[in-house]
Model the fold of this input.
Amino acid sequence: HGLSLGAYDGEEMVGIALAEPRPWNRSLWVWEFHIAETHQRMGIGRRLMGELIEKTRSAGLRVLVCETQNTNVPAISFYRAMGFEIDGIDLSYYTNEDMVQGEIAIFMKRKIEKSTTEEISTMVRPSNASAQKVQEVLRTKGYTLQVVELPDSTRTAVEAADAIGCQVGQIVKSLIFRRVETNRPILVLASGTNRVNEKKVGQMLGETIGKADADFVRQHTGFAIGGVPPVGHAEPISTFIDEDLLEYEQIWAAAGTPHAVFGLSPADLEDLTGGRVINIT
Done:
């Protein structure tokens, strides 16, 4: 049986993914993946692909395969960003007259590994008061996400990735900035590999932003720098989410201290924070 996923803006379909499982080689073959031009660069493609990745994993399959053309550079770049690698080419794959002469089929695949969540059973449940506070906020909001405390520091993205055993890009950096004119906080949830373009974010806000000092961060969030979570703050804070986080099926955020984290999906992060997904670089 085939798999069909759609993305909608109201009643309008703006994205589609069609795939077919091939159990004999434990793969899911994606034969149609398209996002409407008017809705590109909005995170829709990453979310659809994230769903395909989870469907592949839940079906016990181990490879996700797609095909594109050597001339379709944006598609190749997107697939590579989603963890695909070029697996082969076929010079004779296209035979119909509509195809541009000389166009080559490129086959790309992504290996599907077990979720990192399955490997944290030895991590310690939270004992620190700040970490427990974050756990209670998650519970109150109806999530079963588990805060864990690690023996190693997670103060920086690199430290967190090393302690968890994931990619640096899967780490959610909770960065507080100060609006210069109104002296209000703004939270940017950035992928661990990215630096925030403060000028770009400020233009989106219509107000210049600058770095916040430790006292400002603790006053408005209730947490110290290095352990600021995306939720549970002392006051509501306007939030932006780095679109690059949406390329991962699982990400990791701070949970109140430099030693506490919790794993979640990008969709969970959006729902928890109400944040706006943007390009921050």
